[in-house]
Prior knowledge:
The chain is mainly alpha-helical. It has two domains: 2-98, Tyrosine recombinase, N-terminal domain (DNA polymerase, domain 1), CATH 1.10.150.130; 114-289, Intergrase catalytic core (hpI Integrase, Chain A, Orthogonal Bundle). Helices cover 56% and strands 4% of the residues. It contains twelve helices and three strands. The protein has a three-stranded antiparallel β-sheet, with no helix packed on it. A hairpin with a 4-residue loop joins strand 1 and strand 2. It is globular. The mean pLDDT is 89.
Amino acid sequence: xxxxxxxxxxYIQYEKRYSLHTVKAYQKDxxxxxxxxxxxxxISRVEEVEFFHMRSWVIQLMEEGLTAxxxxxxxxxLKSFYKFLLRKGVxxxxxxxxxxxxxxxxxxxxxxEEKQVENLLEGIEYPEGYVGYRDKTILExxxxxxxxxxxxxxxxxxxxxxxxKSITVxxxxxxxxxxxxxxxxISILKEYLEVREVEFPTADLFSLFLTQAGKxxxxxxxxNVVKKYxxxxxxxxxxxxxxxxxxxxxxxxxRGADLNAIKELLGHANLSATQIYVHNSIDRLRKVYEQSHPxxxxxx
Length: 300
């Protein structure tokens, strides 16, 4: 089983170009499965694994107290592995087709209201100098584009098209997408770059955002910046970069944006990942309906 696992990991890493985080997660899941098969059933070959063996592994995971979401992810790893084996002709039938993953309850993503965003970008006093301009530009860009934290960190100055008013983002699996920018966002970026050039005339000429030491940003710094300023305008539990991504998508949905357009802007691989933002819109509409429509509530 080990040889096949190595081939699969190499496949998703070098051919499918999955992120290092995803590759490690798949590797850990499959190692856990292989260990279970060897210890409980003394099975070391993938051809010997049957459906009931897999089902007992799932039961074991749930008895260990893993959440439905964690079990679902591990099953996704296993199913991908066995599809790979089937394509390669290592097995003739896929026992994972009968496996039913536990239902994962989808939590609606947390976001902040439009007034709070307005306060965040226009009502707060930012520190003077480079850091203040940088922090405000980070917040503006995250909200204006809905990009991920890793995508923001990977931005280069050349990714901005000031004439075409857009920015090129390198997303998951090295897929590029172009996101339009408003005149307001363009002006914020220009101001920031002017200050950046004065502060770091000989610094890294490629990375768009830099630390106070003139080095490229790192994930924890971006998280701390966003959390610091979001804490001034909202009491929502989650106050990281992804909150602004959710806010971007929710505000677009609330204002009637096409779901496919939101999907493309976010860089989602499929529409199902984007549909959750419709639920936020429906909840909002329901509240408006209940507060405003004369037939919404029974009269005493």
